[in-house]
Amino acid sequence: MTQAPPDAEARRAIAPVICYPTDTLPAPDLVLYRAARATAEKVGEVLVPPREGRCFEVKAGQFFRISSVEGPQVGDLNLHNLHDLKERFFSGKTRALHGTHVTTGERLWSNLPYLRPMATIIEDTLGWYGIDQYGGSVHDVIGTRCDPYTGNLLAGGHYHHCCHSNLTRSLADHTGLPLNEAEILVHDVLNVFMCTGFTRDTGQYFMKASPVRPGDYLEFFAEIDLLGNLSACPGGDCSSEHSSDTAACHPLLVEVFAPAQGALNGWSEPPVNAYDRSHGR
Ligand SMILES: [Zn+2]
């Protein structure tokens, strides 16, 4: 423990400033998206089995919905540019822009040097949850994904159905890539339906039973052509533990919807980031 300076309380009392005020971010046109959604018809679905991953493709301008079916279950979501798998979801910058948990009107951003919206959340039936008394909330971008390496580090053993491995297998199966090439494309996730936060006293990452129930869903508008990859986490509702076969697990349903021709008139795919990439040279 270090010695506190005489003005310690005064220093602690300084009010925080938001790192990235988002009022200059172009706002998504939710009115247009929802009007287009009202014309949309279902064009595909994928049922992700418990403790497995599955890929799905969504064209720019289409919608995809992730639903709880059968029982409470959280999902680990990866997104890639369908035509360039190196462009992928950037949970860290999404967190810096929108906060620890995301909901309606917020966007999933891609990694550098692309940094553009990949998808926009247009509906969240768990939006009512807010922030609970423990500081917990739903759909976080603070976790990474459960993985067998951390499991091995903390407890030894070789568990093969962590989200990292589920996402690796499903990406390899969908793309034909060898397992080791698919693995390095797997990235930090959006924890769909997962209820998490940081403890106030120790700052540790916590999880608690997800409030999700069958029928709940999170729905997105695809801003670019997407390859989605979703794992039904071995943690189930994440009320006790993950990285094992102990928890009760359920499938997750992904449905894709295409709007009517002309329903998105005036909308265009977001371009990649405009920074000139000269880095001062
Ligand atoms: Zn997981």
From TrEMBL:
InterPro entries: DUF1989
Record domain DUF1989: where: 48-227
Protein name: DUF1989 domain-containing protein
Species this protein is from: Ruegeria aquimaris
